[in-house]
Specification:
It is a single chain. Helices cover 81% and strands 0% of the residues. With 221 residues, it is mostly helical.
Amino acid sequence: MKERKASRTAVKMANKLVDLVYWRKMRKTGVVFTGLVIGLASVFQLSAITVLSHVCLGVMCVTFPLRLYYKLLELLRWNPGGEHPFQSYLDYDSSLTDKETVMLVEEVVLLVAFAVTEIKRLLFIDSIIDSIKFVVLLYLLTYVGILTNGLTLVITAVIALFSFPLLYKKQQVRIRRMLRTVKAFVKKMRSLCLSLFDRVRPSPVPAPAPAAAFKQKVKSK
């Protein structure tokens, strides 16, 4: 039951994220997207502690007057039930059970172990083609590191995350046609590289036949 509950929670969170990315709820997505971009741009100019403190102060500038207003209504007996304006947020259970915590930690450990295994495989040349791709990626990242920093990349990634799905939804046919062309070109280049590698690679030395080896032994005697 607990595993099903955890899987349902994960599915709900994934569906909410998909709804945000695909702009299915325009107002909610606009608020989240604007808040993320403004927050990251603020961190670009100020420290993270300053930005977090100002965000919390801004939220409390809204919640505190509302709480006092409802308290005043309760004192004037215009709110006899003593309704709390943020009771739904207070009742929302965001805690994790012991089993859910263990499952989450196991998933994180598996992801870290997979990343370490892949990096080890690429660094110690388990596959020549994959290591060449990794070298090219690292070489390109050196230029990216010179031109920009990590926070700029995060801001760009957030903008791309909210922009590309909407662009793909509107230009789906054209993008699919371009992707097919790119895939065909990559497949052609890969087959060309493999054929060149097969030509350059020396052919294996054939093993001597048993009869010839026996004759050589007899002659030597």
